[in-house]
Amino acid sequence: MKKYFKYFIFLLFMSTILSATAQTKITNPFGLVYGGAITENVPGKVNIHPVSYKLNGIAVAANVYTPANYDASKKYPAVVVAHPNGGIKEQTAGLYAQRLAEAGYITIAADALYQGASGGEPRHTDKPTYRTEDIRGMADYISSYAGVDANRLGVLGICGGGGYTLKAAQGDKRFKAVATLSMFNSGEVRRNGFQNSQLNTIQERLKKASDARAQEAAGGKIIYAGVASITDEEIAKTSTDLYREGYTYYYRTHAHPNSTFLYTMSSLLDLMTWDATTNMDMIDQPLLMMAGSKADTKYMTDEAFGKATNAKSKELFVIDGATHIQTYWRPEYVDQAINKLTSFFGKNL
User: Taking a C-beta distance cutoff of 8 angstroms, is the pair 176, 185 a contact?
Assistant: First the structure.
């Protein structure tokens, strides 16, 4: 009986811990789900400011972070932060935006149009043109924010946001310094499959996307690709680090109701004919690309980096021991990335 009582106490303890963790995520007044997130705005500290603005007539939900002792009459460098595919501003994009604000930057992280808390229908549309425009829209907004020196504007893109950041920076020279973390080339992966695993089904998948577009145009049901939910057993059986750890991050440890792995099937018409590394030679700004040494996505960073032949300066920073998803949240890897970013932006902004 004593043995079972101890087991009961252990289960009760674990239940309490898990419940407390879930409650912390739910009750954060700003909806933030990352470690060390702001819970209240305190004078003299880094503060968060939920804002909304219109981009092409659609409402955008964003968070602006201001540094400690922020004074609107002064001038600060600013950084735009683009979130991963499926991600939202309350997850890793918010973490990096907050940490950069702690280093003295005014930062902005916004939900992509058609995703998160931003407007747009149909929901979960994921088209490269829109995602690139999201980054330019953040630049539009933050450039006129009180205290921002628009001549010292940088950009950081994480995962899919990294690929879209490279594309945005090719043409938008308001970005004086360009950085990516765990860059994911959405077009290449949707076209060829992760690690080129679906080369034999490209035309078949384009046909499905075309049929989905036709169904939408006829007023039919929206067809979605991706994963709506997943069991622990299915996560455990996932062979790649990116997706196994990604499912755990988005559906378990850092879950948020606005985050999803779904995207409209018709989006593949745009995704599969697009590539983040096309015209990389048009980037003439300083470029920093960061990836974990154990990331199974690192091949995408390597490919893009090699094509950036005209960057004013460029550096590939490898975070030793990190996988793709671990750069989103593990303190020892986030610290390395932030230290490198503050050095990079400090030098170039």
Answer: no
| This prediction's pTM | 0.92
Tokens standing for 171?
């043409």
- Token duo for residue 90: 């309350």
> The domain 42-185+227-261+275-348 belongs to what CATH superfamily?
Alpha/Beta hydrolase fold, catalytic domain (3.40.50.1820)
For residue range 280-326, list pLDDT tens digits in order: 999 999 999 999 999 999 999 999 999 999 999 999 999 999 999 99
∠ CA(229), CA(94), CA(83), 5° rounding? 60
For 17, the token pair is 């811990």
The values of phi and psi at residue 236, to 5°, are -60, -30
Domain ranges of the chain: 1-30, 42-185+227-261+275-348
Total residues found in the chain within this entry: 349
Give the pLDDT confidence of 196-225 residue by residue, as tens digits.
999 999 999 999 999 999 999 999 999 999
Q: Are strands 263-264 and 224-225 parallel, antiparallel or unpaired?
A: antiparallel
